[in-house]
Amino acid sequence: MKERFISVFEEILAVNIDGEVKNLLVEGGEASLDDALYALRKWALDKNFYLTELDEADDGWISEIQSRVLFDKLNRPNSLLLVKNYATENWVPHENNPHNFFCDLSLNRHYACGNDFVPSDDLPNLLFVVALNGKGKKYWTHKEKNSFATLIV
Fold this sequence. Notes:
Layout: H1 2-17, E1 23-27, H2 30-46, E2 50-55, H3 62-67, H4 69-74, E3 79-84, H5 98-108, E4 110-111, E5 121-122, E6 126-133, H6 142-146, E7 148-152
Helix pairs in contact: 1-2
């Protein structure tokens, strides 16, 4: 199983290095997602990549956006973002919807916090986003969904 994860991580990395924006959604049961998380952490460590982990269902990350702490983490060379529970929250649709932050990161490698008071910046060092989710409903746009390759474990 570990080799399968590593192979998929390498494929997604190669696609992004070639200039396409592609992310990875890993869907499965709790044990399988734990295996994927362990493999991702090991792969990132072996490659000297910086891995930032967030859980969209735990809104503690929201305060990090405006303080720019999260920007600094994602702007390091060879950065990866892992988001647990990606697009599983049914946020009220509006301009400051917290999921919009993840959507913009995934689609555009762009850091925007949803207001005009904090500048928006590109994240050229963010290689790709990995989402770890159960098999439940996702609340995302068609374009966003298409930016993710899916691995069901």
